Every structure is written in structure tokens, then in C-alpha cells.
Write the C-alpha cells for this entry.
Amino acid sequence: MVESSKIKREREKLGLSQEKLARLADVSNNTIINIEAGKQQNPTVDTLKKIARALNVPIEELIK
């Protein structure tokens, strides 16, 4: 399960908008919005890898 607040916290720490993170991670903006809102609690491993890479954090940081 993804810790949505961790993704938001890391994104904000880097000063990124949801849209910018989506572009950097090569995922849809809606994906970022839904994960951060807790509507998508189990994104694919591939999606998590992309987001972790874009945020420059280990994937383990994003998982509960």
C-alpha cells in the first residue's frame, strides 16, 4: 500500500507541482492526483518506480 502523504511531502519538498511530477515520472496527472488523494492505494510497481525515480527517493520510501 502506498503512503500517499509521503509522495505529496517529497513532491512539495522538491517544489514540484502534481503536473510537473507526472511529466517527470511519465505517468498521467490523474494518476498523481488519485494517489495523493488516497483514491488509488495500490498503483503498479512500475508506476511507483517511475514516481520514486522522479522524486529521487528509494521506492521503499513510498510504501507503508
Notes: The chain has four helices and no strands. The chain has a mean pLDDT of 94.
